[in-house]
Amino acid sequence: MKEPRGFIRIIQLVLAIFAFATICTSARATIQLSCRGESGATNYTKDLEIEYKYPFRIKNVQVDTPFCMKSTEKSSPFQDISFAPAAEFFCFIGVMSFLLCIGYVIGYILFTGFFATKSTACTVDFVFSAVWALLWFIASCAWADRLTFMGVTMDPSTIIQDLQGVEYCQGSMVLGCSPGTPGNHATLIVSVLFGFLNFLVWVAGLWFLFKETKWHRESSDDLDRFDAPNPAESNTDSSYQSAPGAGTTTY
Asked: Which of 23, 50, 60, 240 is most buried per CB count within 10 Å?
């Protein structure tokens, strides 16, 4: 290919892998429980780990309850909160981009002549890539917004407020709850960055696709016709210059 469309597709393929790989992870927040010692024993503290992972349906996160008891069972003390729609849509765009880029590269290799001669195929390629770049932008913005809200929701102070609302931090063996360490969202933040980077690369690749469309070819042909000299004017000028006695004054 004259233009690096295939090379750009390979870059898009790699970036798509990083995008959906970094979102499919987990985070873990902790809160400290102040527990009453049994039978006059010394009071003690323990960490309660709260792990949440892709697709981040917080309502399904379970912890050992009741707190500070030897006999516990898994239950979910959290409200009906879910960040799954934005996370799953972002991951879907990433996985589909990966598969599409594989198909594009194979198509460019096997049907090089077809893309070189058929302007309609290049036009469809351009329009589809423009739509997919827009989807990357929408998915990245949606996921960035939900990730910000998830950081607030899963902050240990906010978790304690939710637990106190359902009286998990109150009981015969629980003296209270205090904030521990927040979940590490560094990898998830990287996924947002890769999302916007994918959007920029797809937009940048549109120029090389546009140069192969009929719109660009027609505009180039119009410019060539405008810049080309007029044959009629050229013949008139040459006839004038070659006429007998031209430029000679007779007395």
From this structure: 23
Digit-coded pLDDT (tens) for 4-50 = 778 899 999 999 999 999 999 999 999 988 888 777 678 888 888 88
* Residue 66 Ramachandran class (φ > 0 left, ψ -120 to 50 alpha, else beta): beta
Virtual torsion, Cα 37, 39, 42, 46, nearest 10 deg: -20
Tokens of 194: 């890769």
Find the mean pLDDT for residues 90-104: 95
The HSE-up count of residue 71 (CA atoms within 13 Å, CB side) is: 0
At 31, phi and psi to the nearest 5? -130, 150
Is residue 31 within 8 A of residue 180, CB to CB? The reply is yes
Cis peptide before 66 (omega within 30 of 0): yes
Q: Burial of 198 by CB count in 10 Å (0-12 exposed, 13-18 middle, 19+ buried)?
A: buried
Strand-by-strand arrangement of the 26-35 sheet = 44-53, 26-35, 174-179
| Confidence check: pLDDT of 185 > 70 | yes
Instruction: Provide mean pLDDT across the span 89-108.
Output: 94
Distance (Å, rounded) from C-alpha 233 to C-alpha 231? Answer: 6
* Whole-number Å distance between alpha carbons of 199 and 216: 23
Entry pTM: 0.78
